[in-house]
Write a structure and sequence with these properties.
Number of domains: 2
Number of helices: 17
Oligomer: single chain
Radius of gyration: 21 Å
């Protein structure tokens, strides 16, 4: 059986004194490719203490999410050797591990592997072996301005209907005063606009593929979900939404321009405006719900000459000690620790006091459903854990952005998306 067929429909998947030293006694130099979000950027500062302790020099390559995926995938697949450590996620880790592209990770007893949240650990493993260690994990939830909601006379509840979400967005929408009812991802990319869009489709009862791998983008559920998305964001979102993803919306939110944002739970760590409240993701009635599951994790490309030093660094950077280092760091503090990674983090009193979002985030992660099901016959919530998905998702993402911008009708965009996805899956030999 081919790798693609085996994965389709399967179930989900202390600093030592000599840390990072080569056999000849010289300290290693590691090149690390990271996504350019807040927790990863903070790590560069926190890790200065690691270099002081071990002598390991760390070279950081910080890239926008879509660019990171392209460069890391290309370099790892070809054995380019540009990076010693790479940021990847739950879509790639089990597939790349099974293909031998990345090294298995085995850490010491002090690491406490059982402390890693079970859903996150499973999603970064293949056949029980961990191939990428989670730096932080996330689901998605509603982050909204309760002051604006109260002033508009609306409420936002856990697992609200999409109709109620639309009503709340309409009530808070005040573009004359620079406030938009809903700020949502529109920038094309399988991990950008399609992360959010897929959860909407899930909640309307749709899926990417049937049990044979045939794309389902021409279904009534996709049509209903995308029409809803385009209508919601077109009427109550900021101008130019087809160019907005996580970082762009975070900036808008912190400028006080968003009444509501449905996105990664990790965003709550970086919200700077007052009056933010949280609710579990909306649903249109389907059992799959509308909250995703993801982890940005650290992996070692196979064949790296610095593999041992790289694994030592990952062990430290994803440990309980690292959480303490961020919490006690004078520039950051307990509201900035990486979350969605370890069970123990949520029981730290200082974190509980600083992170008003903690219980909502953990509930979202615990309720995510990445397992294959009759409705969704593949692993993954906002993605499908098959090798072809990045290509399929990227092609569809462009069409959804065209629908959002008005360059195409929803129907034309979905027809083009179905055709592109069908060609990719046929070429891959699914049917």
């Amino acid at each position: 059986m081919s790798l693609k067929k085996a994965l389709f429909g399967a179930t989900a998947l202390t600093m030592a004194g000599t840390l990072g030293a080569h056999a000849d006694g010289h300290a290693a130099e590691l090149t690390i490719a990271i996504v350019n979000n807040g927790h990863m950027i903070n790590m560069q500062t926190v890790a200065e203490a690691y270099t002081e302790e071990t002598g390991v020099k760390l070279n950081w390559v910080s890239l926008e999410e879509g660019v990171l995926r392209e460069q890391v995938t290309s370099d790892t697949a070809t054995g380019g050797g540009q990076y010693d450590i790479i940021n990847i996620g739950m879509q790639e880790a089990p597939i790349w591990g099974a293909a031998g592209w990345i090294e298995p990770l085995n850490f010491g007893a002090d690491y406490d592997m059982d402390d890693i949240l079970p859903a996150i650990r499973a999603g970064l493993s293949h056949e029980g072996t961990l191939y990428a260690a989670p730096f932080y994990g996330e689901s998605s939830m509603v982050m909204y301005r309760k002051d604006l909601a109260d002033a508009a006379g609306v409420t936002v509840n856990d697992n609200d209907s999409w109709a109620r979400i639309k009503d709340a967005a309409a009530a808070m929408h005040d573009p004359d005063n620079g406030v938009y009812g809903a700020c949502l991802r529109g920038k094309p990319g399988w991990g950008d606009n399609m992360a959010f869009i897929t959860t909407v489709v899930n909640s309307f009862g749709g899926s990417w593929f049937d049990a044979d791998g045939r794309p389902q983008l021409d279904s009534a559920m996709w049509n209903e979900a995308i029409n809803f998305y385009v209508d919601l964001l077109g009427n109550y979102g900021p101008p130019g939404s087809e160019g907005n993803s996580f970082n762009e919306i975070l900036a808008l939110y912190n400028e006080g321009k968003c009444g509501m944002w449905i996105d990664a739970t990790i965003a709550a760590s970086f919200l700077e405006v007052d009056g933010v409240a949280y609710a579990q993701s909306p649903n249109a009635g389907a059992a799959a719900g509308a909250n995703w599951l993801w982890a940005w994790a650290m992996a070692v490309p196979a064949g790296s000459p610095n593999a041992d030093a790289a694994k030592d660094f990952i062990e430290w950077a994803t440990s309980k000690d690292y959480v303490q280092a961020v919490g006690n760091h004078p520039e950051f503090g307990w509201g900035s620790v990486p979350t969605g990674q370890r069970t123990s983090t949520y029981s730290i009193p200082e974190f509980q006091a600083a992170a008003g979002f903690a219980s909502a985030e953990l509930a979202a992660i615990d309720s995510a459903a990445p397992e294959a099901s009759d409705l969704k016959p593949y692993v993954g919530v906002q993605f499908a854990a098959i090798p072809e998905f990045p290509e399929v998702g990227s092609a569809v993402a462009q069409e959804m952005a065209a629908a959002l911008s008005g360059a195409k009708s929803v129907e034309d965009a979905l027809a083009a998306a179905q055709s592109a996805a069908d060609a990719i899956m046929r070429e891959a030999g699914y049917y």
